[in-house]
User: Fold these one by one.
Assistant:
Number 1:
Amino acid sequence: MNITEKILARASDKNTVSPDDIIFAKVDKVMVHDVSGPGVLKVFDKLQKQGIDTSKLYDPTKVWIAEDHFVPSAEKISAENIVKLSNFSKKYGIKKHFKYGLGQYGICHTLSHEEALVNPGDLYVGGDSHTNTTGALGAFACGLGHTDIAYVLLNGEIWFKVPETYYFKLNGKLPPHVMAKDFILQIIGDIGNDGAAYNTMQFGGTGIDEMSVESRLTLANMTTEAGAKNGIIESDEKTVEYLNERGATNVSQFHGDADADYSKIFEYEASELEPTVAKPFSPDNISVARELSSIELDKSYIGSCTGAKYEDLLAAAKILKGRQVKIRTEVLPAAISIYRKALKNGLIEIFLDAGATVGPPTCGACCGAHMGVLAKDEICVSTTNRNFPGRMGHVESQTYLASPQVAAASAVTGKITDPRDLN
Amino acid sequence: MIGNVIKYERDNIDTDVIIPGTYLKIHDYNELATHAMEGLDPEFPSKVKDGDFIVAGKNFGCGSSREHAPIALSTCGIKAVIAISFARIFYRNSVDGAFLLPIEVDDETYRKIANSDQLEINIEKNEIKNITKNETYAMKPFSEIIAKIIAAGGLFKYKK
């Protein structure tokens, strides 16, 4: 069995599972945020009316709460949702509640790794489609809706169809100025935005071994954009070290069998990859950055679970150091811990010196909710993960998805720019 | 189940157009319904009638896990979405929450069904009758667990 199958077999108390099997799997970790949490509470209300007991969760120690989509609250409905979350964690005894404005907080997926909340081999579900991100730590990580998360919170298990696994092998180290974002955009462009629908995307090979944990997280994050149930990367010493540095204890590795089966294998040479951009209005609508050098921009956005980890900010800062931005540029570290590290190492000063604005962690502009949405006809280059119509604001705005290096280089020129072409 | 078709001839109708991100803070079903399909067809809430079906191309509901998407459509009165394929979270949200039926058909059936056609969906027979055109199409049968959850009326009732 491959690693996804092995995790699903363990979690469903079976010796073996195969693609298409239907299982009920025990869940090790659960996440809700300020959109899915109030959604779950709405489901609880409906259940209570049907006489179903919602007074206790299966295990509050396995649950954490993030405040990320609508913080800081722009209006009263969002503010009330945050109050609902506080009441929720109090009522059910959930201790891990990362509150906006109270120490460490940030985007839910970023917290999952920054706070070492998930371990290799865990079965983790979250009320957000980009829950796939955390699979980069060697866990089965999958996004679910409100009803399913409500079911998990009350029963500790959920059904899955065992997915087929597509294996993406990367040979060699990524060249300078090419980032994990470029690789995953290339893959999505190749297989299409439903190219891995219902299936697993697993990454491996020497290129993945070479990659930092944060780069691996970028890959797993965007498997959602190819329709995948989960993205996964086998853990290694780097994974263990990464988690230990963030306070984890007793991290043990969990691996698939060496002779595991994959339904498809895709092979890439790192040396052939280039800075890549997804044009509006789909993450699979890709082009090399150089071909888009005539696209004039209104804004560069460096934020989100996809593109505002420390490594992403560092990559952007290296480009912005000593340069000036020509267009509106917003940098939003994905968690307070990242913000702090960026401050300590001088990155925030580099961004400010370049003329960019630095904001608090939030999903706000990435999902077109608040904190910098786009006006009609505005064009943005963004380190985020989606560019559907209206995703980042007005339905007639446009988003080009890119790596932090491309977003930073483009901020300097005001046009989509391959970082290799900056003077 | 009989209803009329609202057809969108396009693939990848994503959750951002079904219910834009700015409305994710809303959890009142009736209010969500007033914004259904706003990113694609702002007239949708005023033209949809209770019992209608949406017909669309492949990968319907791609994107976010927001349950607001099937909630907004079902609260408007949509009883089924007939598409060539569905994105996974939209599909399971529709079924587990018992909001609407996600029905898969082949390309030819998708092309044959026109806007405003009246259809009768029979999930026992895996059949869609086009009353307007006097044609009958096959739908892809639900997998065993999906059929059971639908028959029970959602995941909680299935596992009760």
Number 2:
Amino acid sequence: MGDRRRRRPRLQPDGEIITLENVSKSYTHGVAALDNVNLHINEGEFVFIVGKTGSGKSTLIKMLLRELTPTEGRIVVNGYDLRKIRHSKIPIFRRNLGIVFQDFRLLKDRNVYDNVAFAQRIVQKSSREIRRNVPTVLESVGLAGKYKQKPRELSGGEQQRVALARALINKPSILLCDEPTGNLDPKTSWEIMRLLEQINERGTTLLVVTHSKEIVNAMQKRVVTLNRGVIISDEENGMYLDDD
Amino acid sequence: MKIRTLIYCIGQGFRNLGRNKSFTAASIATIASCLFLFSMLFSVAANIQNILYSVEKGVSVTVFFDPGITDERIQEIGAMINQRPEVDHTEFISAEQAWDSFKTEYLGEYADGFTENPLEDMSNYQIYLADVSLQGALVDWLTGLEGVRKVNQSEATASTLTGINAIVAYVSVGLIVILLAVSIFLISNTVNVGISVRREEIGIMKYIGATDFFVRSPFVIECMIIGAMGAAIPLATTYYLYNRVATYLTVRFSTLSNILSFLTVNQVMKFLAPVCFAIGIGIGFIGSFVTVRRHLKV
């Protein structure tokens, strides 16, 4: 996968790939999920987003995916202003993002190959290109021999690798991971994190939401801590702040 | 949209049938059951209407003329009658034909004693109506014509037939509308439930950048195929059963053969097939289109 080139991100002039300016999000019942959040992430960064349950991490990821829109403020991802983006442009915007969920979200009725190939079908690749690209990306996540298996026949770690392969096959400039190790045992969690680190080293910007104190403290990356919708800490080589 | 993407979406629609076997089977069974009931009801109603129509065709009005009327005037009256919209066709029976018929039917060899035609003034027109409910209006018009002596009609037959016709029409239409409404409700509910359980799949597709068309089209094609199959099964069953039942009834009630005039299966299918396919495919299309749209807002 080393020679595979990423999509060229649409950076802002100062090299930022993700920008949140004074972003707030309130739900209809009045609870503020995010409150005046400012966050700037440059191309190629590896950022952990941590915080207790209900701190606003999932809301942040949903807004970066343009599943939710902010009540106030401005979000720019890959050069798209997400408050102004037209509905018809959202699929095109999302094709430049990779997304990995805690519960993998694979198409259960399709095998590993078809799950990964599906992402290529969406961007209208030819069958020949798909036949060439899918085995390559499956090999890069260590699943070359399992392309015929259905998700239910795989372990949690393997399913997460399929999700990673699907997220990576279109060479996104940003990879969003929402609790990617939440359903995995410690050994498998580390395997996935090493894989994410390799992906980041090849230039992909990573945003990883996690609860794993051990992983965050060991990896020495930038750590953004949220508490009740507010960023209370944003440190390079940061540590997981204890709940108290 | 590239052609290969369109072909892929259509192919996925067909593949989905196999991937979701239980949904496919349940939907086809629901659609087939509803449309089979509809087909049966329609076949019965159409045949009752046809039998009534045949009976109506046999109801006639007879017009007799004044003594000494000229042949030209009789022809003139005949032409005027044939121009009336309520008239299907007419038959002219001359005095000679009337007498010949009477002799054959009632007198036999005793007719030899007659040297002159006693039915000299009995030439007449038998008028067969296009719509028996208009008999009254026609009789009123005929009575006022110069040269017309007498008009014979069967008012009771006409009014009875008109009444039965109206009842059959109202009941048939009412039942068909109710059955169609129930069918549409059941079929769209089945499609709705079948797609709603796959909302996670729709969400995944949207998250990784699928357009609404890319997500929706396989579902729509899948449901249209289900609709077509759900329509084809009852149509084939009706086609097979119809001929058997019609043959059985004709043999069983042979004494009523002049009344029991069944429509041919092709006549029934000419209307039934497009309606069933339109309902099956139409509900498949609309139901899936609307249901998927609800889950596209991801």
